Amino acid sequence: MTRAHEHGAAAQPEGTAPDAATTAARAAAHSRRAFLFKLSLALNGAVGAVLAVPILGYVLGPALKKNASYNAWVSLGPIADFPEGETRLVDYRNPVTMASDGETGNAACWVRHIEGRKFQVFAINCAHLGCPVRWFPQSKLFLCPCHGGAYYEDGARASGPPERGLFEYQYTVAGNHLLIEAGSLPTLATEACAKKKPLIQIAPQDAAADDANPARSS
Amino acid sequence: MDNPNQRKRHALKVFEWFDSRLGLARPLTEAAQHPTPERSASWWYVFGSAATVLLVLQVITGILLALVYTPSAGEAWSSLQFLNHDVTLGWFLRAMHGWGSDFMIAIVLIHLVQVFLFGAYKFPRELTWIIGVFLLLLTLGMAFTGQVLRFDQDAYWGLGIGASIVSRFPLIGGPLVGLMLGGPIIGGPTLARFFALHVFVIPGILLVLVGLHVWMVLRLGINEWPMPGRIVSKASYAHEYHEETAKNGIPFVPDAAWKDAVFAAAILLSVMACALLLGPIGPTGQPDPTIIQTAPKPDFAFLWIYAVLAYLPPSLETPFIFIAPIVVIGGMLLLPLVAGEGEKHWSRRPVAVLMLAVIAVTLGTFTRLGTYTPWSPIMEAWSADTIPTRYLQDRSPLEREGALVLQNKQCRNCHALGGAGGMRGPALDNIAARMTEDQMIRQVLQGGGNMPAYGNALNPAETRALVSFLMTLRGKNLQPAVDSSRQLTTGSPEPLPAEQGGAATR
Questions:
Q1: pLDDT for A184-202, tens place per residue?
Q2: Is A146 exposed, middle or buried (CB count within 10 Å of its CB: 0-12, 13-18, 19+)?
């Protein structure tokens, strides 16, 4: 305790009765130091602002990148693997993965072979909250285990909490292989199909949707 | 003979050497012995300290787990298996951390309820409450990020649910999903950022805020025991509290603190008992998105959210998800600023007590529903649950064929029979007492009321068989449902047999 006091006393400025000249000098020195302190704050503010650029750029990097830029065409295998009129689960490897992704880099989709070269490829992720939907060929329904969303065989919403039908991947048949454009997790904001559907698909798809669900059109 | 004395003097010298440099002995002693109102030295006032002790337990067990855990999406799951099965007592440490988290949420909630009921958030402890609200949110944040680190199927699909919720945010939903996942899919960067949140970011903020929270408790004094009629007013409270503690105060250590210590020990023992008897929580299956035979479910603390999301009408869901948290959290933050004065005693605050009761019952109900998810179809019911034999005895071949249709078309996934099957739709045991044949045909073919239309999945013969089976399901021989409009027009007491597909043409 006593030693602490001694240290404290030593730290006090010396001289108990400063005269007028030193007071003025000190005031001048003080205002100069106060100004320098403010200047140093401004300097650090500027440095901080510069520093924020790379930090924000790094943190926001994944947010700023366009989802479509991750997409690539992935082969799901020869068409012969998909019998006409059936809907099958197909696994594939996400086109962009890293070593640390492990099995999470795998993905799955439901392939519905309508006829000939007409397909529908659905994301397994429910349009409600993304849980994996399961296909029941007997009742021709996709059912979600989480909140009970249900979809018809053409992916249209049947019942439950989803606001819309299943997400669809854009597909193409190259040679004898079925390819889809995939790469990012399908959600309401990042739809699997990237919103653009090939023009040629519109008419047959609508027709297929109509004759697939006569009950709903009534 | 003077040896003990000498040793004592020596120890004192060492102590002084440190304290002359640290200078902590006096402030710490003063803090420990700060006067506590005598009645506040109560068993009701032990929850805050217990939560702090649990936080310390979580930090210690968390650091120990981090010695083995691998925060890589490809290896996290197997490192948890390694912890469970190969590391000596690894399973116990995992169990302590998991159960410690559940206990911490429970204790924090009880602490919040106690503080609310005792009016402790009122002047001058408003900021203590506000920081406490953030501590609750951070605790829940730790629970969610911790559930992600248990990188199993539930964690994977839980992240998917999180991403789906975030994606609903207007305009910036897409970028937010990217920010959350750290890339286009749930993968390595996703786990890495949740690891950083769980291990660095949230605990850092949590510890700083706990420090402030405890500092304010010491500075402002513990809440006095509320008395009906003793009104809090900003003008006189400080004076009254000071008078009370000067007159009836007892030193926190040791007069009041022994209860905190006993309760903290009991809680730690309970965590250890749960860990020992119930074992570590998970991991469930591997986080492989191609394994779709899964029914993901969040941890206990979030079951109520899971339930709410099942019951909201689709059109209300997105607005609710984004507006409700603002209202709830905003309300909690504003509470002490709006109601910072007045009565503290619960018997004089009926609205507060009623609000608490309503919120508790609501959360409890939704959590209870979340434990058995009546809204989820039971995916295996159609092939696993048999039709009770009594429903098949003395039935015509057509009716038995209908029972087969019911089974094969997955009706049981949503409809229970004899207590087995899904609960998404109504149980069918007495369906014929509630619906006429026409109504059944219409419902089956066209769906509606949350049921898909089966017009495309059933041929007329199947529909006919199915409905004729359903017509036999009348519970304990209840009267069959009757179309009274037909009775009026035909004068016949018996319902006419409906023609196949008659409903569709109406």
A1: 999 988 776 544 444 443 3
A2: buried
CATH number of this structure's domain B381-505: 1.10.760.10
Residue B115 has pLDDT above 60, yes or no: yes
> Angle formed by the axes of helices B257-278 and B47-66, to 10°?
40
C-alpha to C-alpha distances, B325 to B108, B159, B239, nearest whole angstrom: 19, 19, 38
CA-atom Rg of chain A in angstroms: 33
What number of H helices and E strands is found in chain A?
4, 10
Cβ–Cβ of B447/A148 closer than 8 Å?
no
Residue B465 has which token pair?
Answer: 């068989």
Q: Closest partner residue to A216 among B157, B173, B453, by Cβ? A: B453
Chain B residue numbers touching A89 (CB-CB < 8 A): 290, 292
Give me the amino acid identity at B102.
Answer: D
A169 backbone φψ class: left, alpha, beta (φ>0; ψ -120 to 50): beta
Q: Where exactly are the structural domains of chain B? A: 33-372, 381-505
Cα distance between residue B193 and residue B180, in whole Å: 8
E strand map for B125-252? 231-232, 249-251
Cis link prior to B325 (omega < 30° from 0)?
A: no
**Residue among B136, B123, B110 at smallest CA distance from B216:** B123
Query: Tens of pLDDT along B442-493?
Result: 999 999 888 999 999 999 999 999 999 999 998 877 888 888 877 777 665 5
| A194 interfacial to chain B (CB closer than 8 Å) | no
Write the DSSP symbol of residue B400.
H
pLDDT of residue A18: 58
Nearest-by-Cβ selection for A100 from B74, B167, B414: B74
For B192, the 3-state DSSP assignment is: helix
Asked if residues B285 and B294 have their Cβ atoms less than 8 Å apart, the reply is yes
Report which of B472, B464, B461 is spatially closest to residue B431, judged by C-alpha positions: B472
A vs B: CB pairs below 8 A: 241
B33-372: which CATH topology? Cytochrome Bc1 Complex; Chain C (1.20.810)
Round to whole Å and give the CA distance between B176 and B168.
10
Mutate to test the interface with A, among B12, B186, B291, B292 (most CBs of A within 10 A): B292
Q: How many Å lie between the alpha carbon of B198 and the closest alpha carbon of chain A?
A: 17
Site of tokens 């305009």: B171
ipTM of the complex: 0.89
The DSSP secondary-structure symbol of B199 reads: I
Collapsed DSSP state (helix, strand, coil) of residue A92: strand
Task: Decide: A154 and A209 in contact? Cβ < 8 Å.
Answer: yes
3-state DSSP call for residue B480? coil
Distance CA(B447)–CA(B500), nearest Å, equals 16
- The residue written with tokens 């015509």 in the block is B396
| CB-closest option in B314, B413, B457 to A163 | B314
Cα separation of B429 and B321, whole Å? 37
pTM, full prediction = 0.88
